[in-house]
Write a structure and sequence with these properties.
single chain, 249 residues, alpha+beta, Topoisomerase I, Chain A, domain 4, Gyrase A, domain 2, 2 domains, 6 strands, 57% helix, protein biosynthesis, Ribosome_recyc_fac, ribosomal large subunit binding, Ribosome-recycling factor, mitochondrial, Ribosome_recyc_fac_dom
């Protein structure tokens, strides 16, 4: 075997040559081993080092109560949820629309009335409801708005001081329309819950200079979590109502 440098040392012993070969072989092994270690330490393209998503912040009512009125907060959120359930019961039904229309709420000049308090409601055949506003004509615009915004999929037609409302037939399209309106009412409830949440968070922000920043931040997160609990409950109510309207189990 040729060994570099042998030509300059013709008298080198066989033992010395073998020693040189052995040392060279060991150095190569060490070098290859170090490269393998570096490669093993490098992350593979498939490893995910992203942070796990944080779950909802636990609600501690005692802590929230240090900065806001917890009972009032819960009451405001519950009122919104109760209103959603009431709207579903009154306005989103496959039964005759006449009963729902009678109890339809109409806002007029800062006051709220049911439609039967301000109008005469009757029928002209099985598929047509007649609303007579001759005794209260100034409320016509508000009644039409209430009917169009009711979520019942109605198509009111005005003729002077009278409103004619065709009763929709219970078709697949009508069911789908009501289910869509259920989502619209839920979205209004969700926005209302956000407004309540932001109202109480503003209260906390006003007190930030009086308390520790950690407490203020924690309470804001907990208020958000509490609002989300009510929104989540409202979503369950919506899904149940949609399944009922669509005839699903």
């Amino acid at each position: 075997m040729y060994i570099p440098g042998m030509e300059f040392c013709p008298k080198m012993s066989c033992w010395t040559a073998r020693t040189v070969l052995l040392v060279t072989f060991v150095v190569l092994l060490i070098h290859q081993g170090s490269q393998h270690s570096v490669a093993s330490a490098s992350p593979t393209p498939f490893e995910d080092y992203s942070e796990e998503k944080k779950g909802p912040v636990p609600v501690n009512e005692s802590e929230i109560g240090e900065l806001v009125n917890v009972s009032r907060l819960k009451e405001d959120l519950q009122k919104g949820l109760d209103q959603l359930k009431s709207d579903y019961m009154k306005h989103l039904s496959l039964r005759s629309a006449s009963g729902s229309i009678e109890n339809l709420q109409v806002d007029f000049e800062g006051e709220t009335y049911t439609l039967q308090e301000i109008a005469q409601i009757g029928r002209k055949g099985p598929q047509l409801i007649v609303v007579n506003l001759s005794s209260f004509p100034t409320v016509m615009k508000d009644v039409l708005k209430a009917l169009n915004d009711s979520g019942m999929g109605l198509n009111p037609q005005q003729d002077g001081t009278t409103i004619f409302i065709p009763v929709p037939k219970v078709t697949k399209e009508y069911r789908e329309s009501l289910a869509k309106n259920a989502k619209t009412l839920f979205q209004k409830f969700k926005d209302h819950s956000r407004d309540i949440q932001n109202k109480y968070i503003r209260e906390v922000k006003k007190k930030e200079k009086e308390v520790s920043s950690d407490l203020a931040h924690s309470v804001q997160q907990q208020i958000h979590s509490m609002a989300e609990l009510y929104v989540s409950e409202g979503e369950k109510v919506m899904i149940t109502k949609q399944n009922e309207l669509l005839g699903k189990d």
